[in-house]
Amino acid sequence: xxTNRDNENLDFYRGDxxxxxxxxxxxxxxxxxxxxxxxxxxARLTPDAETAIFDVTITDxxxxxxxxxxxxxxxxxxxxxxxxxxxxxxxxxxxSGSLTITLAKGMINTPADVTRV
Length: 117
Description:
Layout (H helix, E strand, L loop, with lengths): L9 E2 L6 E6 L14 E7 L9 E4 L13 E6 L1 H4 L5 E10 L2 E11 L8
Parallel strand pairs: 1-7
Antiparallel strand pairs: 2-5, 3-4, 3-6, 6-7
């Protein structure tokens, strides 16, 4: 499977909702159907760090997590992004039984907000 999402770097502003839409396609260019998979994402300071900065379940935003459209949405709440380091590693994996597929990976850059409330 080729998702064309290796090393996709993201920018989340510290204290804001972190959001990114991924449009996954199979080798033929069709939307990748992940029906039956659980999809989740973690971020860590380094890939080998013991402690996760976040561990979230991914939603497809359209079909009640059926993941048939090839669209998945990474959503990280402000309560998490407010304490994120300036840069960390993330990946997104689809899991079904003993099968695990890494759909995307890269860095998350988290610059500080200038406006304070």
